Amino acid sequence: MQSFELFVGLRYTRAKRRNHFISFISLISMMGIALGVWALIVVLSVMNGFQTELRTRILSVASHIEIGGADDRLAEWPAIADFARKHPEVRGAAPYISAQGLLSFGSEVRGAMVRGIDPALEAKVADIGSHMKAGSLDNLKAGEFGIVLGVDMARALRVAPGDKVVLIAPQGQVTPAGIAPRMKQFSVVGIFEIGMFEYDNGLALIHLDDAAKLYRLGDAVSGVRLKLDDLFAAPRVARELNLTFPPDIHASDWTRAHANFFRAVQIEKKMMFIILSLVVAVAAFNIVSTLVMAVTDKQADIAILRTLGASPASIMKIFIVQGALIGVIGTVIGVTAGVATALNIDVIVPAIEHLLGIQFLAKDVYYISELPSELQWHDVGIIGVVSFALTLLATLYPSWRASRTNPAEALRYE
Questions:
Q1: Cα separations (Å) of 37 from 276, 341, 380?
Q2: How far apart are CA 117 and CA 358, in angstroms?
Q3: What residues does each domain of the chain span?
Q4: Residue ranges of the chain whose pLDDT lies below 50
């Protein structure tokens, strides 16, 4: 683009117009683009924050990788755990026993997912210890038959630390009266709160040795859980481990265990991007009406430029500059406001709540009571490019129409 077209385009943008309505529409278009870009950045940052928060809470209980065997039994687990630890990206390994059971206290009965753990190794693969509301995982000692419950499970059973609950294993034992389920009394030694209903209401932790005795696994376990330096490397590390394991041993990563959940979150984020992009598109295409009116307002000027030798392509570039400048200014304002809001949402939202006297995420309703935000510059870049592209697209028709102006017709009544 020659400096002539850029100079005239910028001059038209700054010049006072006979029709002030054109300037008003230009301002509205600019603010509309800024508002759409601002909303896109803030909403996507909040969705990123929620996704990260939920992923953190899930992986504080679930593991990055689980190694299991046939029939959910892994006999030679110490050797497998030692082998897995040798992988350069594996930070820790711990055995576990996973089974189902019924918990009973008084007249209350609740189903539970029972997990046998080694408290000394569990901290290397999970962060449950940092979510304890009462007691500690260290209170789980072999042979003492202690149990740690989720806060909702404890509330449903109406138990507190020190109470004794009966754990009923579904695997039966043969008696003269027939097959009867195995039962064992456990003392509640701790209560945790992850913030995920699935775990707080359905998970019970006992010592690995106690679980092996109750479910008659002997020296076997259900599997080995691994924690990695980078959780996003889990699919690749799992594939690498599977290539070295025998056919009856397999490794599964966390993305498979929670694939539907994270896929739904990702689809929701994409749909929000598309929906909010329409806001930017509506504002961008307001530029069409702005430039059409500007072309009508500048018919005589266009004709004079044509008679002085300006080509249709030059006239088209002049109005593209004018429309693109509106889009650039709106995009810059929107990006600046969006980034500032996303980075300070932990201050802005409480201030609004205090001002209005309401709470957006009540603690007694939502597990996440604060609005999380995670700004990703990749999203900001895409939003900026899409906004500018829509702006350029909106300038094409009015600019083409300006380039088709007939000088003789435009100057007939001047």
A1: 8, 12, 9
A2: 42
A3: 3-56+261-411, 64-257
A4: 1, 19
